[in-house]
Amino acid sequence: MADPMTTVSTAEYDAFGPWIDEVASVDEVPRMYRSYPIDFASARTVLKFPRDIPRREATPQMDLYDHLVIVTDDRLTILSRTGETFAEVSVPHDRVAAITDWVNLLDARIVIRTLDGDVVTVAYNGSSNDTVVALVGLLRQLAHRAAPVHRQRAVVLPPLGLDDLGKKDALMVTTFRDLARREPGVQLVAAHGRSVVTSRSGAVAKLLDLIVPATLHACVVGVSDTELHIIARREWIVRGGAPVVSRAHTVVALGVLTAVTVDQHPRYVGVSVVALEAGRARIDVLVPDDSVARTVLLALK
User: Fold this and answer.
1) Nearest by Cα to 300 from 259, 271, 263, 265
2) Where are the chain's structural domains?
3) Once rounded to an integer, what is the mean pLDDT over residues 110-125?
């Protein structure tokens, strides 16, 4: 006989699925977060991010949402499930240094770096990427960084053809096209396809180079008057020939950049690690030594 406690349904359980839902009232707040005061009249959006479990494994007794994201005019607040309670991270919009949204099929993350050096990661199902794209757009709008940044102007490149970066990296092209269509002020200033790289030293590493070559993946760089956009893969360097279908889009506000430095990659020949520093935040971009991207990024400061 079934346990009657497992058959009693709840509204939270009935609505549960892999998608991110907007929360419009207290009744829709997952029960774990009910104790947190939310002013729905002033909130710009409230979103609940579900646990990464199949629907068939969920029960009405579970806390089914890993995160509650609350955006007001002043700040971003993220409540995250930690066992039977939750932790809170709250940051004013003008303290956000960079936002990365990456998707690998249904495995997806939004990563927020603050000027204080904090890194907050929220996992979600890639089927809700449109919702996250809209969330990132709202956060950028609320950052109040509309003043153009005076910088050395990079040469604007002509539009990319679908196969300009190689057939395996057409996703990079279409991702930038989608961005430019949504935001015409973003201009293409650098792009390169993937390349095989070799190890600096070590017999085992050099043997691996022969058996499972290491690939430095493609990258597209765009700039507007206020922001830097970097479109790449989830991992910069990957060994082996398995198909790579991930896509990562990082947005950095130009006005918060405090330094841009470059070093040689410690393991691979011909790879530059360009470090974008904003306060205590650091975003590493891996590019070929002789790439336009390296030149453009170093010219930002």
Assistant:
1) 259
2) 4-142, 167-298
3) 95
Q: Are 151 and 300 in contact (CB under 8 A)?
A: yes
What's the rounded mean pLDDT across residues 162-169? 95
- Using an 8 Å Cβ cutoff, are 253 and 89 in contact? no
CA angle 109, 182, 142 (to 5 degrees): 65
User: pTM value?
Assistant: 0.91
CA distance 18 to 208: 38
Nearest residue to 160 via CA among 188, 186, 133: 188
Query: Hey, what CATH topology would domain 4-142 get?
Result: PH-domain like (2.30.29)
Task: State the DSSP code for 199.
Answer: B
Q: Do 258 and 252 contact (CB within 8 A), yes or no? A: no
Q: What is the pLDDT of residue 73?
A: 94
State the Cα–Cα distance between residues 213 and 199, nearest whole angstrom: 10
In terms of residues, how long is the chain? 301
Assess whether pLDDT exceeds 80 at residue 145.
Answer: no
pLDDT tens sequence across 53-91: 888 888 888 889 999 999 999 999 999 999 889 999 999
Q: Characterize the bridge pairing of strands 271-278 and 237-239.
A: unpaired
What is the DSSP annotation of 262-295?
A: EEE-SSBTTEEEEEEEETTEEEEEEEETT-HHHH
